[in-house]
Amino acid sequence: MSEGMGKVTCNLTISADGYSAGLNQSEERPFGDDGGDGWGDKLHAWYVEGAEENKAEIDAMMSATKAFIMGRNMFGPVRGEWDRQWNGWWGENPPYHAPVFVLTHYARDPQPMDGGTTFHFVTDGIESALAQARAAAGDGEIAIQGGATTINQYLAAGLIDELRLHIAPLTLGAGTRLFEGVPPLKLEQVTARATSMVTHVTYRVLR
């Protein structure tokens, strides 16, 4: 992290065996097969059913972050070639309330939403997305929101300062896995807290 720049972090919920999504992801089930009936019921239950117990971590996800980066699949699946009218998974008022830079192969005009979120679509790679996010964030933090494939690209390029993982007590066995294709990392544990539905662990990525 350079002087005057905010940290580049990630927040990611993973299973105990390291998967951020199961097999068979679809528009109806964006996190695939995780043993639940819909929107990542089992993997992300801590965020919904356990919101009170995990309030500190939920609040911390957004409080210091001034810009976000996500992969196109986290914004929403491709419908045909690319539905330029669809606003993604997030409804009319996404939770980000800040600029979000979406990595994609398909150009699209910025999409402003209620609450201060604007999705910007970046077609020229992860470093371009990070440069644009830095310009938008100033000295605030930038969060690589996911999914795991996008986070893995930034980890492999040495561009993430801090990993904030939320480990759910279940295994998926297959799917999209964190650290896939990433060279060995040296991590320093910063914090760890267990609640009844998840364990929160923060690691600093050492250079």
Automatic annotation (TrEMBL):
Pfam families: RibD_C. Residues 7-196 form the Bacterial bifunctional deaminase-reductase C-terminal domain. InterPro entries: DHFR-like_dom_sf, RibDG_C, Riboflavin_Biosynth_HTPR. This is Riboflavin biosynthesis protein RibD. It comes from Phytohabitans aurantiacus. The lineage of its organism: Bacteria, Bacillati, Actinomycetota, Actinomycetes, Micromonosporales.
